């Protein structure tokens, strides 16, 4: 099954991807997430609104992580990824090489 990257929208099956619940991120975009600024949180830095602010992979609220970067597009809206999930996804992508 082919998954598109929620950030660059690439469907290139040759790009390594980490796939989560309804979201995917490719290796090149994963590298840019590490240096991304924290996404604007609709309800402030301590928001606990799962749908709008939390990590699309693990569901963590912004107050539970160092940062959460947004900018991706998922079927329900904006995809977000936290610092911990960036590290986990990097391990998954590296293991696939």
What is the structure about, briefly put?
This protein has helices spanning 27-34, 50-53, 83-96, and strands spanning 17-19, 24-26, 68-74, 77-82. By secondary structure, it is an alpha+beta fold.
What does this structure look like?
This protein is α+β, with helices and mostly antiparallel strands and 97 residues long. The chain has one domain (17-96). It contains 3 helices and 4 strands; from the N terminus they run ββααββα. It has helices at residues 27-34, 50-53, 83-96, and strands at 17-19, 24-26, 68-74, 77-82. The strands form 2 sheets. Strands 1-2 form a two-stranded antiparallel ribbon. α1 (27-34) runs antiparallel to α3 (83-96). The longest helix has 14 residues, at 83-96. The chain is globular and about 35 Å long. The mean pLDDT is 75.
Major sheet: size, sense and barrel closure? 2 strands, antiparallel
Strand content: 15-25%
Rg, alpha carbons: 13 Å
Total count of domains? 1
**Shape, per Cα inertia axes:** globular
The ordered H/E elements are EEHHEEH
Number of helices in the DSSP assignment:
3
Unreliable spans are none
Give the number of DSSP strands.
Answer: 4
- Helix percentage range: 25-40%
Structural class by SSE content: alpha+beta
List the strand order in the largest sheet: 1-2
List the topology elements.
Elements: E1 17-19, E2 24-26, H1 27-34, H2 50-53, E3 68-74, E4 77-82, H3 83-96
Antiparallel strand pairs: 1-2, 3-4
Helix pairs in contact: 1-3
Please name the defining characteristics of this protein:
4 strands; single chain; alpha+beta; two-stranded antiparallel sheet; 3 helices
């Amino acid at each position: 099954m082919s998954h598109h990257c929620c950030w660059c929208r690439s469907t290139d099956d040759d790009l390594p991807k980490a796939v989560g619940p309804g979201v995917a991120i490719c290796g090149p975009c994963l590298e840019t997430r590490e240096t991304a600024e924290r996404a604007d949180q609709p309800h402030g830095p301590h928001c606990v609104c799962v749908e709008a602010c939390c990590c699309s992979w693990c569901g963590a609220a912004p107050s539970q992580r160092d940062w959460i970067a947004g900018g991706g597009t998922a079927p329900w809206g904006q995809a977000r990824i936290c610092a911990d999930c960036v590290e986990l996804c990097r391990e998954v992508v590296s293991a696939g090489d």
